[in-house]
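Students often ask why we bother encoding 3D structure as a string. The short answer is that it lets us treat folding as translation between two languages. Here is a chain of 905 residues written in the first language.
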Amino acid sequence: MTGSRRRTLVTTALALLAAVAPLTSSSSSSAATPSTPAAAEAADELDLTKARAQWIDRDTVAWDLPDAAATTHEVVYAPDGRLTARAGKLSGEGRHIRLSRAEGGLTDAQREKYPHLKEYAAFTVDPRDRDQIRRALTGQVIAVRKDADGKPLTATGVQTQGVLDDLYSAAATKADLGPRFHHGRTSLAVWAPTAQSVTLELGGETVPMRRDDASGVWSVSGPKAWAGTSYRYAVKVWAPSVRKVVTNKVTDPYSTALTADSARSLAVDLGDPKLAPAGWERLRKPKATPLRDAQIQELHIRDFSVADRTSRHPGEYRAFTDTASDGMKHLRKLARAGTSYVHLLPAFDFGTVPERAGARSRPDCDLKAFAPDSDEQQACVAETAAKDGYNWGYDPVHYSVPEGGYASDPDGTRRTVEFRQMVQGLNGAGLRTVMDVVYNHTVASGQADKSVLDKIVPGYYQRLLADGTVATSTCCANTAPENAMMGKLVVDSLVTWAKEYKIDGFRFDLMGHHPKANILAVRKALDALTPGKDGVDGKKIILYGEGWNFGEVADDARFVQATQKNMAGTGIATFSDRARDAVRGGGPFDGDPGVQGFASGLYTDPNSSKSNGTSAEQKARLLHYQDLLKVGLTGNLASYTFTDSAGRRVKGSQVDYNGAPAGYAAAPGDALSYADAHDNESLYDALAFKLPADTKPADRARMQVLAMATATLAQGPSLSQAGSDLLRSKSLDRNSYDSGDWFNAIHWSCRDGNGFGRGLPPAADNKDKWTFAKPLLASSALTPGCREIDGASAAYRDLVRLRATEPAFSLKTAAEVQSRLSFPLSGTTAETPGVVTMRLGDLVVVFNATPDTRTQRVPALADTAYRLHPVQAEGADATVRQASYERKSGTFSVPARTVAVFERR
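And here it is in the second language, the structure alphabet:
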């Protein structure tokens, strides 16, 4: 990451600051190969392609260097970006900023802010050189270590995120960015503190922009006629990814509208009445449901309607206005039962689908003609996957503009109008709307075509590793919301969706890659929105996300993360994987998908997989899974105390989940329960792998409902993948993000099947499981009919209705849960493997996952009158109506593969 000596500078200090100095003499600029091992080693240290030094504030550069008294250090910068290292030599001319090593390294405050740099050496910027810093940051910046003779020993690029925040964020975070419309004028502003120049290309003209030195914001104001016009910025800036000064033609990160395929931004006022569909200003929303009571359907916009023959707008936002379609009828049924929110997979502008319908490809084969276990379907789908109309959408380009691929016309503002119509349609069906948001990464970085943020302030918005490369632990180019202006973009974007699109909740993808402080800032900004001022009540907007702990930020390595344990008590929920894995069995990445769990037959209905172990091992694991399930039913409370299956008195936090505490929540609502979501196999497909191969469709349907019940009847919110109540299958595809409509579409009519047996799933993510999948897909025993599909859906709605109408499922505090919820048979000889009995106030809930009728005798309830809850007694499931209670002994009898809820008379 040798020359002979540095050229002598003029002798006065003032001249030293102003002079332009070459890094090497003319004799040292040759490309000669180092002749000694020592020279070769030194050459390896002169690497300007990396950025191992970090300029963390205006006073300090942090650099992972050894302590060497006989060396000097400096920052060298070149506005023209022509500093190079070749064959162990540094060349090019630059200005120098002197550094002195700080004794003791970073200060305590600096170590707290940058814990991952705590062992780095600290170098203080010479006070005489500080007036050069802002100029230095507009060009190439390197750090150089020299020996006593002035010979460069080490040289590297410099990361500048910290110093940019120190210099500019106080003013920049208060700036209004993007298009603004006031008093008949149109204004545009972009934050580009490292740019050497920024001009506006609007319509057919080029307009210079003015830089504000305090904030680093470039802005320009023009006539009202600019409104609705396409534009982009021309940003002249040093680009580390290509190591030269470039002029990037780039769209606005704060765009409010776009032309097709994100080619240009549009200067659009979202408050323009022309963009409001009829009734928008008077929109009446369904009553807000608190997060702890939220029952959520996770739904992909295209999946919802693309295969629905009754929809007039298949695959579009407008499909949610088709009130007579099968899909909308089904959503209304769920809403009447008690489902409160529809969670939409990403609907902001993303970069992996051609937005114009005419530019898309379709599989060029008769997919229906192939055998249910054939590899032909996936091969045909794969050929057009990159150019078809399908992707989950976790590939952000512009965070605050609706995706154009779901609009009738992507080239303008129809996407704005139609997105709003979608919200209206869902609200009219009795459902509030959650958006899945992905601020943790972008689809591209550097100079890539779809890079936006990194073309405007290179090296700032993306999270960089120790060597200056972009972190990709989230799958793509990670962003850095710990940096002030990325954090601001997150907050500003979410406020835009809340105010301008009346979104009722947000689900954060990989929320653990955000600082906790950033998510709390979002909460604060939303809470400040009021109906009178903003048209929405921000305090009723719900927030939840994936609190997974991994990657370069894991274990709070760079900041306090928004992870499961850290978000407890904030009122912002995290997905809980504890009960999910216990219910399904194993984990999402098992090599053998046949590992069973509570709702897939472990011990009580074993399959042929050797991965499940001996009968004794299965029993022990099942009882532990039941402990995990019990913790899940409490809302994953850390403090909840109960007797575990081994007879020990434990707290939820003392129950083991793969080496971590099972219980982490402080109150109901901190953890979100689920049995399946878009990631990994759908619940039906997981059960297809795990239940014995000869399990009948009717029994598979019952196990599906039972598995969903473990989330639905838990304290706190729960989520279900749309269509799971209809036994939705993706033909065993574990990662269908780009698997097209063939594998992903929801089939609302049972006559169209449930999606199972549509061929082997795409090879890219599933081929290692094909040997398990092929015999299953070929088996007619796994294909449900209308009786199973419609029966499962009706039984699930009964459970949702029961959950929504019984206050006992909506306890507000950990203390209430502790006093009102118990597991009376846990840890006793009466605990039955495969059965969990929960007492909840005046209710008793029995989850019988076994293939036989089971009795559960609770001596403490002897002589107490109970009956099957009226919702089930009068409901759709004939089997659950066979459940009974014997008062004298306090014994509940529940049919096989059934969850039964009893109420005290």
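Translate back mentally: The chain has a mean pLDDT of 94. Keep this in mind for the problem set.
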